[in-house]
Design a protein that fits this description.
This protein is of the alpha/beta class. The chain has two domains: 176 residues, Quinone Oxidoreductase, Chain A, domain 1 (Alpha-Beta Complex), CATH 3.90.180; 138 residues, NAD(P)-binding Rossmann-like Domain (Rossmann fold). The chain has twelve helices and 17 strands. The strands form four sheets. Strands 3, 4, 5, 8, 9, 16 and 17 form a seven-stranded mixed sheet that branches. Strands 12-11-10-13-14-15 form a six-stranded parallel sheet, sandwiched between helices. A two-stranded antiparallel ribbon has the order 1-2. Strand 13, helix 9 and strand 14 form a beta-alpha-beta unit. Helix 1 crosses helix 12, helix 5 crosses helix 6 and helix 5 crosses helix 11. The radius of gyration is 20 Å and the shape is globular. The structure holds zinc ion (ZN) (2 copies).
Length: 346
Amino acid sequence: MKAVVFNGPEDMELQELETPEIKKGEILLKVANSAICGTDVRIYTGKKTKDVRTPSIIGHETVGEIVEIGEGVKNYEQGQRVGIIPIISCQHCDACLNGLENACENRQAIGYEFDGGFAEYVKIPSEAVEKGNLLNIPDHVDFSEAVITEPLACCINGLRKSNVKLNDTVVVIGAGPIGLMHVQLAKIAGAGKVYVSEIVDHRRQKAMDAGADGVVNPETESLQEKIKEYTQGKGADVVVMAIGVAGLVNECASLLKKCGTLNLFAGFTKGEWSQIDPNAIHYNEINVVGTTASTRQDNRNAMSLIANGKINTDVITTPGYSLETIEAAINDVMDGSGMKSVLNIN
Ligand SMILES: [Zn+2]
Ligand SMILES: [Zn+2]
């Protein structure tokens, strides 16, 4: 099979490898589409190193068809179209038992500890098969739509942590694919107004296409002034950071009204620190929350929202890449020229 092997930062190579052999309890998935995650970009640039092996096959936003089933596998069949839920949780640590399997203390993941989806085939390990980490794709849902299930699930987890309520004003920082998912989910959750800050011109347009009520270009106008103006001086109920820029945390907190919630949703670069005014948190009783990954139930909800036609997937994705053009796919995410790059694999 063809696979892209990650050897280290900025070193990826298309190779011909043996197609994985399937043993008891395992499943072989023929990959239809894989998408580039912001985390893949951070792995590629060396900004994320935790749990990343070299050499390995990364990629965790993957959909495809089951082509082989190991002995003893229940609940799945050959020919079934499925999406991967990458996080394999242990189900017995404190985090898992407290309903936070996304943050499992013993978590393993496809695309990290196990080889992932930037290949023609992926082996689904038995622990993932047992835990139901393959999600059925309804017949009427295209692979190209279902491929955003996992990142959408992470945003659903983020929405829960942000506690968006009816008629809230939400500010999303960054109109990349994740930002646009937050815009759409906030609207579905009942937000009254959603505003988006983004420096790339075509992405601000995409934010409006995704349902935003207003956009700000923080390079040419003051984000704080603009949000004040939009909210008649009140500030936002929720601010979601969909870009991992540590230096922006304090400014984002300053956009909130009293008791508002700041969600540090994006991953940040290891070693970079933020300064924050503790009195802004103290006097304004601001909540600062984070979000990591998603639960299996979040993934089910994400697939269901897509199947119900609630998510505009077209504004989120840029199709047409392949294993051969994976570096272009990554670069186009990195410089903001595309949205979420989607590879056609089989
Ligand atoms: Zn992802
Ligand atoms: Zn656990």
